[in-house]
């Protein structure tokens, strides 16, 4: 997936959430870092096809460019592009909500159906996907009765059920305690098929356990894209291996608080 000169604003009067972002996602696991309001969620939502750029293009490998948002009426190729992106990507937003009245299995199967799977296939795949995220025992429970951490795993299963090539996860471990975070990280590490991932987070203590690439976003721009090992060399406090200081140094360089 590549971003080519992508800009996005939520409204005419608001400051752009992303400005002229050019960046290419490479296979593997990439973590997206940056302060609050940096533009991480916006970048992920553009990657998922949930938002359409004001300017520039977000492309899957070899696909058609997405038309700029303000071109009207939208042309059929754009719809085909977005439909394909929905099939190829799996998207987990920051907040996973329980679907009222549905069990965990029904919620995951419904997500599969929305992504174009046959009903029977989605129903069966919901079982294997819930197994993959360690929730087999809870598949028949109402989603609303699950803990916050279990609900995140339902959200992950929803993102995975249709077998995407690229997982896009927006702060999947925010608000979890350290033990829950470690459990969620193990689930991500051991997913069958080892899908490519782009994951935003504020947790920087254990980056190298899961990720190989890092992107740092600040002020709506990509300030750094490279390997985790290279990022760690950016620390200013003379303590190599400290992702926290390395990432803060980059953000400070960008003039952000
Ligand atoms: N729905 C929205 N309407 C208006 N402005 C928005 C909306 N969503 C985000 N923004 C603004 O766009 C900018 C980028 O926000 P975004 O959520 O992408 O940042 P983020 O890096 O994901 O932040 P966080 O780590 O707090 O989730 C911010 O200035 C934010 O206030």
Automatic annotation (TrEMBL):
One Pfam family per UniProt: ABC_tran
SMART domains attached to this UniProt entry: AAA
Keywords: ATP-binding, Nucleotide-binding, Transport
Domain ABC transporter span(s) in chain numbering: 1-244
Region of interest (Disordered), residue spans: 57-78
Top-rank lineage group of the source organism: Bacteria
Annotated GO MF terms: ATP binding; ATP hydrolysis activity
InterPro entries, per the entry: AAA+_ATPase, ABC_transporter-like_ATP-bd, ABC_Transporter_VariousFunc, P-loop_NTPase
Residue spans of biased composition, Basic residues class: 68-78
The protein, known as: ABC transporter
Top-level taxonomy: Bacteria, Bacillati, Actinomycetota, Actinomycetes, Micrococcales
